[in-house]
Amino acid sequence: MDASFDVNIESQSQSDIILTSSQPSPSISSIITGSNKRGNPDSPDSLPATQKQSTRQIRRRHSNSIGDLRGVGERKTPTLRKTVADKVLDALNSPEVLNVMIPLLSQKISDTLTPIIEQEAKRFVDIQIQPLLKQIKEQETVIQTHKQHILKQFIQISNLEKATSNHITTIKEQGKDLDCLSDEIADLKIRVESQEQYSRRTSLRFHNIPVPIDNQGKILHPVNTDEIVLDIIRNKLNINIDLNDIGRSHVIGKARKGRSQVIVRFISYRMKHLVYSNKKELKGDTNGIFITENLSQYRTELVKSLADMKTKNQISAYWTADGRIFAKKSESSRKLIIQNWQDVGDLRPPFKRPAAYGNHPDNHPVNQPDSANQQSEDHD
């Protein structure tokens, strides 16, 4: 490669020398061509023959030298350039050169393009992303506002939940108190009803007692119920009794076809029990007179239901003794104590009790007169 550059330099030097020596040639040409125009003392045509020939020879050699140099430049220069280019290409295509140049070029390209790419990327981000970032910030502000609102609502809900929980606890406690009060009330009703029935332990009711009435069917007062009751006990029950054994007696309820109920309070329980024990003597009485215990309103309703069941052959018998109610499903079954509507329902399920009465005893006034006949005698 160095030899090629030396040849090129040497050829270039020769060309420069030839061109330098050929600079006077225009003067020679002008001398040669100028002889046709006018006479020139230095023209070859004006020179002697020997000198003229010498001039022509110089001109000929000069022309040949220039032609040779041009020919050499035209023929040899492309060959020299091709050889240098080939060698350069061969050198560039060699793996050693490529392994060295490629990393260098890559680094240079990277160093050149990286700032440009970063700048363009930043510009793109500024153009495309900044509006989105602005929207995101606005949404963050809205979200923060909603978050604060939700937090306030959460605090309110939490307070409401606590208050509700406290109210629920209070309601449960009050419910327990109400249950206790309800149980106490039920117990008190039972005790009151029992006490009422106990207060009637010396009383009996005489049914279908003839009483004086007017044209409108109303009872004509006063009615001497003491004499009427004493006559029944003496003559029909065959019990020796006098007026001193009766504390008080009176008609109760309205008269029906000239007959009514009479309540009798005896002075002693023993006399009451004696009279009631002999009530069977009145079976088949022509006036239909019969005797029952003076039951409370609650127990009277229970007895009415048992009477209805007896009529429908759902029970075998029912009766009362000392204010207590008994019933038998069949003749061979054991007797059952009837204390409430549940006991009646157990005898005839399902049982629909009257709406006017609850499960607890005596929902009516204690001394409310009975308008219906009590049928609490032993039906067997």
Characterization of the model:
- This protein is α+β, with helices and mostly antiparallel strands.
- Among the domains are: 80 residues; 93 residues, RRM (RNA recognition motif) domain (Alpha-Beta Plaits, 2-Layer Sandwich); 86 residues, no CATH class.
- α1 runs antiparallel to α3.
- The N terminus and C terminus are likely disordered.
For this entry, what is the oligomeric state of its chains?
single chain
Shape: rod-shaped
How far from one another are the termini?
153 Å
Major sheet description = 4 strands, antiparallel
List keywords for this structure.
single chain, 380 residues, alpha+beta, Alpha-Beta Plaits, four-stranded antiparallel beta sheet, three-stranded antiparallel beta sheet, 8 helices, 7 strands, rod-shaped, disordered N terminus, disordered C terminus, coiled coil
Short summary:
The chain is built from eight helices and seven strands, in the order ααααβαββαβαβββα.
Helix/strand layout:
Elements: H1 2-21, H2 25-33, H3 49-93, H4 95-199, E1 203-210, H5 225-235, E2 246-256, E3 259-266, H6 269-277, E4 290-293, H7 297-311, E5 317-321, E6 324-328, E7 336-338, H8 341-347
Antiparallel strand pairs: 1-3, 1-4, 2-3, 5-6, 6-7
Helix pairs in contact: 1-3
